[in-house]
């Protein structure tokens, strides 16, 4: 004989089970930009594989708290970042992406008569802001493999140098610095100069992250900063969240230019991203697989490229970079151009950077590129 209490409980649980299933399925959507009829975006190093569904679930739960500042969520993120990096919480500063840290540093250190040393063909956000504040930029040449030439970087340092800026892996070339040579160089820089290592793409490297990161050096060298973003490997570009790792005295130097903490929703997303190590590992493997798919195709086409360790490949097509970009755009694909800095424009006029997307997206790109190469 049926138990009425059990039947009532089953009737109540059934709708809940359906609702739970619907919520779970809604969390596993295909990543897509909000722009309607968006072209294939292979120009800004966005993550086409998506962020962890666990972050989406936790953000949905927390939406009703939007009328409060909820600083506790940022506090939890600081705690998790410090644990990940093996540093005290006082060494962590969270920001809306890692870009604000680059700009804050430039604003804090730049003035007429001083300089920042970096490599040609590197990332320019910090150095552009440094120049805007009246400082100078000194470029060292690339090595033969389009990586860092640490002797040349060291030779460029003078009595007016305030910052040495290194993006590793580099952007736009994508080349990863030799970890031993990089750390040896960092520790050799005069102690009164800030060494800034931007590790935005380091999670995606083919090498060991633990061996490659300079974060542990922040405990050995006071004038040192390492930055990370959740935009690349973790797939949270639209949520704008990142952090810096540095001695508290360095952070105090740039804090007068602080641009504000990330939102509590972004902090929740970043916390879940850090916790879901399996999702990060899966994303990293997708990047590696698709990156190799692209470089294998380049090898077949006879296209030269810099050895990639980031979210993109920098390649020499032999086609004018603007013509290549325009042709891709006409076919619904956005790529980046040569992104020249510190070198003659003509030297890289036939180079371009393509971000890593899904394999079908890259196949569309390769198909159009192959057609253009056949016409050369």
From TrEMBL:
Q: Which InterPro entries match?
A: Aminotrans_II_pyridoxalP_BS (IPR001917), Aminotransferase_I/II_large (IPR004839), HistidinolP_aminotransfase (IPR050106), PyrdxlP-dep_Trfase (IPR015424), PyrdxlP-dep_Trfase_major (IPR015421), PyrdxlP-dep_Trfase_small (IPR015422)
Ranges of residues in domain Aminotransferase class I/classII large: 40-367
Keyword Transferase annotated: yes
Sorted alphabetically, which keywords does the UniProt record give?
Answer: Aminotransferase, Pyridoxal phosphate, Signal, Transferase
Which residue spans traverse the membrane? none
Report any Pfam family annotated for this entry: Aminotran_1_2
**Any signal peptide, and if so, which residues?**
1-19
What's one GO MF term for it?
transaminase activity
Q: Which cofactor does it need?
A: pyridoxal 5'-phosphate
- Per the similarity annotation, which family is this? Belongs to the class-II pyridoxal-phosphate-dependent aminotransferase family. Histidinol-phosphate aminotransferase subfamily.
Recorded protein name is Aminotransferase class I/II-fold pyridoxal phosphate-dependent enzyme
